[in-house]
Amino acid sequence: MQISENQPFVPVILGGDIGAYSLAREFHEQYDVHSVVVPSVMTGITEHSRILLPRPFAQQDDPGAFAAFVSELGREFGGANGTKRPLLLLGAADQHIRFIATHADELSEWFTIPYVGNAELDRATEKDAFYQLCRDLGVSYPATVVHDCAGGSVDAPALEAELAAEGVPFPAIVKPSDGVAWGALEFQGKKKVHTVASLAELTELVAKASAAGYTGTLVVQDLIPGDDSGMHLATFFSDKAGRVRFVSCGRVIVEEHAPGALGNSAAIVAQPNDVAVAEGTRLLEELGWTGFSMFDMKLDPRDGAYKFFELNPRLGRNHFYVTAAGHNVTRFYVEEYLRGGLAGGNDLQVASERHLYNILPLRLLRRYVPGDMKSGVEELISSKRYSHPLYYKKETNPRRWLYILLSTVNHYRKFKRHHPAA
């Protein structure tokens, strides 16, 4: 598949996961355009597709080489801004957004870039800075201690005293402030998010991370009780003036628990959430944020408050729940960044339609639906208001559909091995 010279604009999407494919599908559905997708390796998600042109590049951890490769894509598909057709440069993961921000000066010769710069990224995405912002604005978040790993050693008694003073008991959650640096680490037992049962486990984890070269901070947090269905998310779009223009919220039914995918949503019900809209809007407008963002939060059964975990500086991996519920996310990119701005003045649009996003076999999903959601989920299934981002009827290659079938069924094995009992 090649990109037609008559195509009015070209999305160039860095990444190759289900979120990257979702973006390519959404552009195809909304505008009948093909996207260039840049995975580090080819997988079944990007192979044998009729709607995207894959251009794999393995050295994405080499910023200079990656910038040269992406610039060459700009020359090939667009030319300098204003002389040919526009190109949108998008990223599917945090490291892509940081890469784009760092190399924005050179890449903007070829691409329209719908992301904030490094300074804004630091304030919003480094977790200790984010929690300070929450404190300043009175937004709820889990009790937290931030431990600096730069020194390499741990003063265990001092750390224990600090945890007690901040109200962080064991077991506790541990996650990195710098997710990009953490992703580049290698050490035995590493996960995206750790649960530690004792001070000894915490100090061991800090020692392993430090020995592997991590010099950032680790966030140690109160473990909010409850299963996956206590998790909620909210996807926002802010215009170039920093005004929040659109929000879509969802409640997670079940997450993946395999070490490399821990915390990734497997099923989400799109539904309104007034608290998330109000609190997220306050945070974003204080930041002067532009473009898409996504918040993770959990409903704490102890006090009934939504505790905000983090701001993702992009569309989430499972953002297709927004499009499936009737609001194709690519429209916001194109109208705001390529066609002069969103219509509607300063109006805020809040999504209200309920829809089920799901990547699991329905039989497996039903094992994990919480009691208070069972009737609502069954109603969505019976009325065909559910969607899988890879199930796109414009894809006609049988080899692709075989991959999708096998990967969907493979969730039985993964859940049996890694997931807590239903």
Automatic annotation (TrEMBL):
Residue ranges occupied by any ATP-grasp domain in the UniProt entry: 131-338
Record-linked SUPFAM superfamilies: Glutathione synthetase ATP-binding domain-like
Gene Ontology MF, one: D-aspartate ligase activity
EC number: 6.3.1.12
UniProt keyword list: ATP-binding, Ligase, Nucleotide-binding
Protein's UniProt keywords contain RNA-binding: no
Protein name per UniProt: D-aspartate ligase
